[in-house]
Amino acid sequence: MTTKNKIFNSLYWRISGIFLVFTVLLSAIFILISVEFSSDYNQEAQQKINGEIAVGAINEVSPVFVDGKVKEEAIHVLMHSMMAVHPSIEVYLLDPDGQIITYVVPSKDVKTDAVSLAPIKQFLERTTDRTIKGDDPRNPDASKIFSAAEIVEDGVLKGYMYIILASSQYTSTMAALQNSFILKLGMRSLLIALLLTSILGLLAIWIITRNFNKIIAAVRSFKEGNHSVRIQLKTGGELAHVADTFNSMAETIEQNIIQLKSVEELRKELIANVSHDLRSPIASIQGFAETILLKEDSISEEERKKYLEIILQNSENLSKLVNDLFELSKLESNPQMIQQEPVQVAELVQDVTDKFQIIAKEKNISINTIYSKSLPLVYADIQMTDRVFQNILENALKYCNPNDVVTIELELEKDSILVKITDTGKGIAEDELPYIFTRYYKGKKTKGANSTGLGLAIVKKILDLHKSSIEVYSKINQGTRFEFKLPLYGVA
């Protein structure tokens, strides 16, 4: 992907479009608010500046009423003079009830004969600093800013001087100017906003898409087979979380792939080894069976018995190999099969040793046990734990000499029971110790013996399922010691 395509991609246009829409909307809202505030400010300022103009007008013609009649000629002269100075005003003379007595306005198009007194009284009381609008006799549906003053003569309220500060002509002129102002302000604001948005938007999109492109490139590379690729981002935020999640996922997948390759290699090795070991007993069984059939008339009873014993022995070896393979495969394929429960490990050890006493006596080997009868319960799968003891004892008896001793010792620790199984047999070479728990591994002393090479692998797998480890210590011709721990019930 080229640099141009990386920057100007669909994400860029989507975000740019959103920026543009929001910019136009915000510009329009800003213009309307600005114009509205500007108009309100102008009217408020005009009312505060010209608020006393009505008082000044009354002072100029006072008294306004002579013998109960209005001095209309003087009033009109004053009104015309005021409108010449302030073309935007309209002047009205009201009676105490708000009825229009006389007025001077352009076009003489007054459409109402009375004005509401409530805004006038509010204006005179000065109870608020806000703009106060009153009735516009020329536009009954509109409200305008005004100035007003009471006409009091001889202590009696005679009426009101009511001056509209924004005449209809002024309003229409201001409306035209306002439209022009809105157009100019809008175009100018929109152009400035679009220019700034384009610059800032391009910069923002570049910053965002730069990290996105790193993530996309890494995902594409991973997809194409580069499982070691990782995303390195210097910035924080959500994209960093995405990168960390991808890196964690990639690490897990890479480890799984490595494990699968390892399992595949192990499977090939296992098939080769099993094929070799199956071939020997099968060939032996087949050979001796054919010999018995071919020499049926000439073979002696002693030879027949010998051949049958060999066939039986090889059948047992074959059966043991298949059973061990099946059990190990079952443990590896279904780790949830473990069913832990409270177990009295001392009783379990006693049962296992009783099973092997006959074989031990035949080989003149002693099996001793050392443990306290008050040991607490452990939390384990009883059948699998029994298999662990059996496999280790079977190995010990197989490689012990007459008069050797096998000892099973149980020691209580803080949260577990330590199991030690020690023998005084042939021992294991130091260079072989790291491999004895490997599936299908046979040591130098094991070759030729009746062994599948799976017994200790099964032991290791069972203890792994119990979340326990096993250690082995050995010296040639001095013996071997296996150690592992079983968790106490209520602690595991």
Describe this structure in words.
The chain has helices at residues 3-7, 10-49, 53-61, 72-85, 117-125, 168-223, 238-294, 301-333, 345-362, 382-398, 455-465, and strands spanning 65-66, 69-70, 90-94, 100-104, 133-136, 139-153, 156-164, 341-343, 366-370, 378-380, 405-412, 416-423, 470-475, 479-487. The protein has 492 residues and is an alpha+beta fold. A hairpin with a 2-residue loop joins strand 5 (133-136) and strand 6 (139-153). Helix 8 (301-333) packs parallel to helix 11. The longest helix has 57 residues, at 238-294. It is rod-shaped. The two termini are 55 Å apart. Residues 1-7 have low confidence and may be disordered.
Within the CATH hierarchy, at the fold level, what is the topology of the largest domain?
Heat Shock Protein 90
Please, what is the average pLDDT? 78
Approximate strand percentage:
15-25%
Oligomer: single chain
The tally of beta strands, per DSSP, is 14
Let me know the CATH homologous superfamily of the largest domain.
Answer: Histidine kinase-like ATPase, C-terminal domain
What are the low-pLDDT stretches, counting only 5+ consecutive residues below 50?
1-7
Q: How does the major sheet shape up?
A: 5 strands, antiparallel
Give the distance, in angstroms, between the N- and C-terminal Cα atoms. Answer: 55 Å
Helix-strand pattern: HHHEEHEEHEEEHHHEHEEHEEHEE
